[in-house]
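Work Package 4 report. The design task specified in the project plan requires that, given a folded chain encoded as structure tokens, an amino acid be chosen for each position. We show below one input record used in the internal validation round.
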């Protein structure tokens, strides 16, 4: 999965925390470091946020609808996705990006700020999404294949324990 995505997640978490409660010095330094990584200087000396090109698949959720989309780029403020059906400018959506290898799921809330290409359910549509609110990072347990760890760190077979518990009942 993209390091850029994790940096955007961290940045969004810190930005929301800064608005609500403020940041400690270590968090301010981290925020500034991430901003520096995503910025470049224009000829006039001002900084501009860059978009990092990525190639990721995500799920775009709106209402009860779930569509697979291709993420083209991410920035500190949002992302661009393709093959986006059903969402219109002004809609609020949830973007779910799963990293199966690391058992992580990134969840971003975003507003659709522009649409380009086809209309409505056309698969050729591209959407510009602007992040809003605080993102979530969910950690999933890897496929356990019936194995688990006890409180003292011992590995055991879940099926045996369940069978023994049922037999005792």
């Amino acid at each position: 999965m993209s390091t850029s995505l994790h940096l955007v997640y961290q940045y969004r978490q810190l930005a929301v925390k800064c608005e609500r409660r403020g940041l400690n010095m270590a968090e301010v330094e981290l925020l500034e470091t991430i901003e520096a990584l995503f910025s470049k200087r224009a000829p006039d000396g001002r900084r501009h946020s860059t978009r990092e090109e990525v190639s990721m698949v995500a799920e775009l959720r709106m209402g009860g609808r779930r569509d697979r989309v291709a993420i083209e780029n991410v920035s500190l403020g949002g992302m661009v996705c393709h093959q986006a059906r059903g969402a219109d400018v002004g809609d609020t959506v949830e973007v779910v990006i799963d990293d199966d290898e690391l058992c992580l799921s990134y969840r971003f809330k975003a507003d659709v700020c522009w649409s380009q290409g086809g209309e409505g359910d056309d698969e050729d549509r591209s959407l510009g999404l602007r992040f809003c609110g605080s993102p979530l990072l969910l950690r999933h347990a890897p496929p356990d294949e019936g194995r688990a760890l006890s409180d003292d760190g011992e590995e055991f077979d879940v099926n045996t324990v369940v069978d023994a518990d049922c037999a005792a009942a």
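Confidence is low (pLDDT under 50) at residues 158-169. Validation will be extended to a larger panel in the next phase.
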